[in-house]
Structures
1.
Amino acid sequence: MRVTAWYSNFAKTAARFCGKPPVFVFAFLIIVVWVVTGPIFQYSDTWQLVINTGTTIVTFLMVFLIQNTQNRDTEALHIKLDELIRVTKGAHNTLMDLEEHEEETLESVRQRYEALAAAARVQVDNGLKDTGTPEA
């Protein structure tokens, strides 16, 4: 549990740091230096290997940091949406854990909401409002 908390904090801090403009500028400058040194090293295999290895390592590690951050953000978003569903009168509480269901269930619910949207568009086309709850 302690390692998980450490990694989570590290990933959050690293993702915030790496997403800042100065870090992008630094990475861009590394590429510029690499390009400028091309003629000095006669565009050798080693010269190419340096940038390929560096970018591969950074990309490999960033994938895990980004995925961790994305997972945490998605989980927080689901919790917030679940709370909004829970406190909204007339809302369908069965939608609160929808992300945990199988693809067939998701497709069925999606089709139901597409039908509600189509019906609302017909109402708007007929000069009616599309607000409120359809079940009411």
Note: The two ends are 47 Å apart (CA to CA).
2.
Amino acid sequence: MNPRRLLLIDDDRLQSRLVEQQLKAFRRERFQLEWRDTFEEGLERLLSGEHEVCLLDYQLGPRDGLELIRLAKEAGCEVPIVFLTAESSSDIDIEAMNAGALDYLVKGEISPSNLERSLRYALKLADTLAELKRLATRDALTGLLNRQELNRIMAEEAERSARFGRPFSLVMLDLDHFKSVNDPHGHAAGDLVLQEASARAKSCLRQTDRIARFGGEEIAVLLIELDEAAAIEVAERIVQVIHDTAFDIGEGDEINVTISAGLATLPRVATTADELMAAADKALYVAKNNGRDRLEIASA
């Protein structure tokens, strides 16, 4: 089994050598150590996403590990962090846990056994928290974001758009005549179509975009920092990839499915997340009324 990648951020060379020796004495886990001795280099390497767990010292020259944790968390870092403190009587360990560290160790009390235990605990807890987050934010059938998470992200993007003057677009999608899939072919076939339609729509997006199951057979797409012209290209591509290829519903059967779309762009037709949603939904309703299998654009 390949060793797990461990990042140590500590300005003490002696501590790095000590950790390196202790890793060799582990009974179950194997780790490959990378050491960085400055705040800036440590943060950069932590944000690289190349490590599975991090040991972080409190004292890092003129800056400290608490600040580093806060900056890492603000940047979306999910690497589990074990905090290293110098004194067991200090409250720094509590502050570190409040900031986002998953465990802490007192330097003078570190042994191979409790270091291994702490790293394993942090990794396991991080996996558990990630799964809880996934369950809380993802739709179980499609794996897309759920409506609650979509609403949260939309509110953030609307605020960011107002602050920095950057546009973002919302595309509301609805599979056409979905009842004609479920009724003759069964709900299992409908689930397959919804899963495949979600995957096709997602394939048209950038990593920075967001896609969610809005409810039933409706899908919502957030196109981050895209103006209307660029968003139209993406939305038209989604409509086309649904239209172009038949859907496999099992046992060798295929059916053709289409999708309707409504697009709205902030700030052109809205100033808030609620207004944007209403505008996109209205445009989707127009697309349905105008024959389906098409995109309609919200007007100011």
Note: The two ends are 59 Å apart (CA to CA).
